[in-house]
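Hmm, how's this folded?
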Amino acid sequence: MKHRSSRKRNVIAGIATLTLCGLVAPAAVAATADSGTGGGEHGGLTSAEWEAVLADELDTPTAVASDEEVAAVAVAPPLGEEFSDPLAQVATVDLPAAESSDVASSLVVNLDALEPQDREEAAEEIADLVDAGPEDVAVVPAVAANLEQAVTEAVPGLPTDEQVAAVRDDAASRGVLRAATNKTLKCKQAKSFWDANMTITFQNNCPKYKNVVWGLKIQPSLQRQIVGKVNERGMKWWLNGKKQGMNAPHKNVPKSYLFHGSFKPVKVPSTVKSSDLITFEVKCKGKILPGALTVTTTIYPRK
């Protein structure tokens, strides 16, 4: 399996109707917006959603993960227990990255329940959901996908070509390693970032609160492919390269759930990196398959 010469390609703005495993869904493109809202089906959170997040987060303590929850995450595979078999065949999809994209998300689906001859076709159909081309999707062993997600969380900011190459071999050469471009947030400023998988909003609440509030929601186009409830691991975050306490997880919640939390204390200027994992099930070719969505960001709170 040869390495791709480039991990980026141009994104054409607009909405296309695509078929995923027999279902129809519109695909969104990567985008960003100031003010913390986007409002459309494929945009950022609505004003009402963001106001609800702020009402929960600004004047009340953020729920943090318990010691037991943190310990469970520490020993679990980066993509969750459904991806613990190192030889399981999984589809990994890298979203097309626009130059303005400030959030990296990867969609991973465990294909092991499918017949071997159906896996490549299923992977291509899954990639269609997020408007990814053949060069952006691969079927690889779960060990490769887990390894690359671990590296994405481990390195500060944007991984270098050398760091990517260090964890790549033929099996992992088209895996899920992605990193967000860096973004500056001034005091009291909110910004939304979205792609075909999810939308996430951050607000830098200096000088009064000295925190960064976040809200994350799965896009409707991906929600339509999910069967049943979803589970969020709990947002991990790092302040100036130092690991901080994990936000509390959300278990067995509706796929339309608005996940939210905060990073604090955050003094400015700082560098804040975060990483979240949402797991669920999707129906493809008559089978219920485990799926995972990873979201990795790096932002720069400033005055």
